[in-house]
Amino acid sequence: MAVRTVLQQADLERALTRIAHEILEANRGADDLILLGIPTRGVALAERLARIVSRIAGVEVPAGALDVTMYRDDLGRNPIRETHPTDVPGDGIDGRVVVLVDDVLYSGRTIRAALDALADLGRARAVRLAVLVDRGHREFPIRADYVGKNLPSSARERINVHLVEVDGEDAVTIEGGEDQ
Fold it and tell me: Nearest 5°: phi and psi at 6?
């Protein structure tokens, strides 16, 4: 099966730096920001983004994790899923601007689950979405506010995000898609 690398380490760093600037611009600074990553790779991306935003803004921006496993609508079809801890730093999300962070936006089902999970934690002032890759094929009316790279793809293709924290390298690859 053919595998193409579409983003390398430097590309990921540029995309995350651009997203960090866009978040700060849209929020008019870092006040009341909290970044929550969706496990697994979204958490690592949220932590990276928080470091970049903090460096640019000159203030600490917290990052955490939001597990959406029990909020998914496919548990009946895929009942064996590993849960991850939800970690919301500080005083919670009430009145804060929450930026959900994920690696790939595809159908929108994970983000729908994340919105349900977030609602159980409190009432955010606003919720935004940052993704490293938007590949299209939405099944829900969900759109990312901040996108590192749009990668229109075939449903037969698989987008793989590799991060140093999880996989030992930074890269985004596409595999498959060739006629069977």
Answer: -110, -20
Q: Where are the beta strands (DSSP E) in 21-156?
A: 33-37, 63-65, 97-105, 126-134, 146-150
Residue 66 reports pLDDT greater than 90:
yes
Compute φ and ψ for 52, nearest 5 degrees: -70, -45
For residue 61, which amino acid is it?
A: V
Q: pLDDT, tens digit, for every residue of 85-127?
A: 999 998 899 999 999 999 999 999 999 999 999 999 999 999 9
Edge-first strand order for the sheet with 126-134 is 63-65, 33-37, 97-105, 126-134, 146-150
pLDDT range class, residue 74, cuts 50, 70, 90: confident
For residue 116, what is the DSSP state?
H
Assigned token pair, 34: 């909290």
For 134, counting Cβ atoms within 10 Å of its Cβ (0-12 exposed, 13-18 middle, 19+ buried), the class is buried
Helices 9-27 and 41-57: angle between axes, nearest 10 degrees:
60
Q: For residue 151, give both structure tokens.
A: 């990668």
